[in-house]
Amino acid sequence: MVKRGEYLVATMGCDDCHSPKRMGQHGPEVIPELRLSGYPADRPIQQQTGTSPKLGWMLMGADLTSAVGPWGMSFAANLTSDETGIGRWTEHNFITAMRTGKVKGIENGRPMLPPMPWFNFKNLTDEDLKSIFAYLKSTKPVANLVPAPLSPDKLK
């Protein structure tokens, strides 16, 4: 299951948003020791300027771990096995999160914000979701408490 989960995470684009990157010879490259740890908590939150989000545009941070749009500003979650990531999640929490788009799989919790495409993952088989979860729980823990999202009225 872990190997299948590793394959699914690698091919479904999880690194695109959930892994911090640095510029390399061929453009943005995943920072291996921070893989899947989400928006770096020690990074200053980028200031959003202009009216693009108010006009319906979405802007991504340079390494794709943050996004701003009409919903405000969102930050990619830590998916590593650390307690600041999914370390305390149950398989049930994970499957609920992927099927319903609720943060941490809490049924009455807040919705996941764009650009998280949970609605694309909700139709995965139980076996695939369990495999992804098994892989994520096997990852090296990276302590990184990602900031809470900012509502539109909190943006400058």
| Cα-atom radius of gyration | 15 Å
What shape does the CA trace take?
A: globular
Give the beta-strand count: 5
- Report the β-strand fraction as a percent range: 5-15%
Label the structural class.
alpha+beta
Stretches where pLDDT is under 50 for at least 5 consecutive residues are none
SSE topology string: HHEEEEEHHH
Mean pLDDT: 94
Taken together, the total number of domains comes to 1
Distance between the termini: 45 Å
What's the total helix number?
5
Can you summarize the main beta sheet? 3 strands, antiparallel
Helix content: 25-40%
Numbering strands along the chain, what is their spatial order in the largest sheet?
3-4-5
State the gist of this model.
The chain has helices at about 1-10, 15-20, 90-100, 120, 125-140; strands spanning about 20-25, 25-30, 60, 65-70, 70-75. A 3-stranded antiparallel β-sheet has the order 3-4-5, with no helix packed on it. Strands 1-2 form a two-stranded antiparallel ribbon. The mean pLDDT is about 95.
Kindly list the characteristics that best describe this protein.
156 residues; 27% helix; two-stranded antiparallel sheet; three-stranded antiparallel beta sheet; globular; 12% strand; alpha+beta; 5 strands
